[in-house]
Amino acid sequence: MAExxxxxHARIRGDIEAKIMTGAWRPGFVVPPEHEIMLHYGCSRMTVxxxxxxxxRSGLVSRNRRAGTVVAxxxxxxxxxxxxxxxxxxxxxxxxxxxxxxHLELRNSGQCRFIRCLHFEDGVALMLEEREIFLHAIPEAGxxxxxxxxxxxxxxxxxxxxxxxxxxxxxxxxxxxxxxLGVPVGKACLVVERKTWxxxxxxxxxxxxxxxxxxxxxxxxxxxxxxC
Length: 228
Fold this sequence. Notes:
alpha+beta
């Protein structure tokens, strides 16, 4: 019974997150009261409260006795780069995307899924990815078949995040990276390291090794004008 309640709590949280991330519920939108959500899902107030409390801790909603639960305004950040979906990036420039999962394992006593995978453009290895997904933050990721589903694409489509941190550097390909990318040892690679959070919880930590001769990162900026 506890497992069913846990699954339903995750489903309610995921359904509300999806409405927020797609823009169906915009900042300031009043979330339906708990008794309405209880009727919709046929569950107890405790299950609904657990889901809404988790959303509040993550910063996606705020709770107020007078106003009720409302969709929160996102924190103001100036980002150098957005988080890209590599399959969309490849297809947008006319390439054919494919994916191969090399290795899967559970770490930290089953609390973390580690995935090593390759992303291809037109059959050529473009990027090696090594990713950790933390199941205490998103337990539903424990049931996803990442052998056929790219983890970054699944996270972008299913998991709301509130903050991200990028680190970009240049490295010479060595050992595992050179072998999987099919490049000589010493070949230049662009390395992107990223962490994302949902409130205080770390969702994922990833390192992506791009072939330097096949990929670059760019961003378009507009000047910030002073208030008049």
